[in-house]
Amino acid sequence: MNVTLVEVAPRDGLQNEPEILAVDDKVELIRRSVDAGLRRIEAVSFVNPRLVPQMADAEAVMAGVPRRDGVSYAGLVFNDRGLDRALGAGVDEINVVVVATDSFSQRNQGCSTIAGVERWAKLAARAREAGLLRTVTIAAAFGCPFEGEVSESTVLELIRRVAEAGPDEIALADTIGVGTPDRVRALVAGAAAIAPEVDLRCHFHNTRNTGYANAVAALEAGVRVLDASTGGIGGCPFAPAATGNIATEDLLYSLDRMGIETGVRIEPVIETGSWLGELLGEPVPALLGRAGLFPDPSRPQQ
């Protein structure tokens, strides 16, 4: 089995960190990720810099990223102005978020869920004309910090609506880390039935220690694209306590041990996680940098 990892630390990771990194440090994070073998990087967000100051330098970051064959850079886009900026900065992909509940959508995007669907459709059409890969992410697909449980039928109906705009990829996001493997399997199966021609992707947080189990469940259900954040940094600044992106290195440990191919080398990702912790002023949440690999590569095996 081959699985693609989308590295989201430069965007979803750093956007929720109180420390704002310099452009050179962000570019270095991206360079390290590419050198480790990651080929899809969610690098920047084209949002109002007043609302998310950590992402205010998107154009400068994109101007500095290494351009290599096979490497694709994504930007998060919320509106036409953001798409204009993304096109000018030279991204390869856009990611547009549609939130599953009105309460969270109003706080996150200043609009209702239905308005978010309409906004996505317009952005998708423009991005298609520009030749960009188009991902639509269903945020709060497993639960909302303001409305609580989100029904399976609600999410599946939303998937049906966003699929009408012809996305290349639909991502299911557990924005606040409340999902469980049974719900993952159900939503993935439902999404595959509604939009069989669209690639499915999953984005999990480990807020309640279910993120890695959910990732494995998604793979077992047929998903072949997973988001992960080096060091396990980040979360959503508009969702209370939405910390805990699953860590790229910790996920890689499981995938490597399971014989699943990703093309990513784990050792440099561990090193980058430790380096990030130094920049951010505290150890990152990822566990592998503390526990180490098994078997220990520095010890001869008997």
Automatic annotation (TrEMBL):
Segments forming domain Pyruvate carboxyltransferase: 3-270
Name listed for the protein in its UniProt record: Hydroxymethylglutaryl-CoA lyase
Top-level taxon: Bacteria
One Pfam family linked to the record: HMGL-like
NCBIfam families assigned to the protein according to its UniProt record, in alphabetical order: PRK05692.1
InterPro entries according to UniProt: Aldolase_TIM, HMGL, PYR_CT
Coiled coil: none
Native species: Nocardia ninae NBRC 108245
GO molecular function annotations of the record: hydroxymethylglutaryl-CoA lyase activity; metal ion binding
Keywords: Lyase, Metal-binding
Native organism taxonomy: Bacteria, Bacillati, Actinomycetota, Actinomycetes, Mycobacteriales
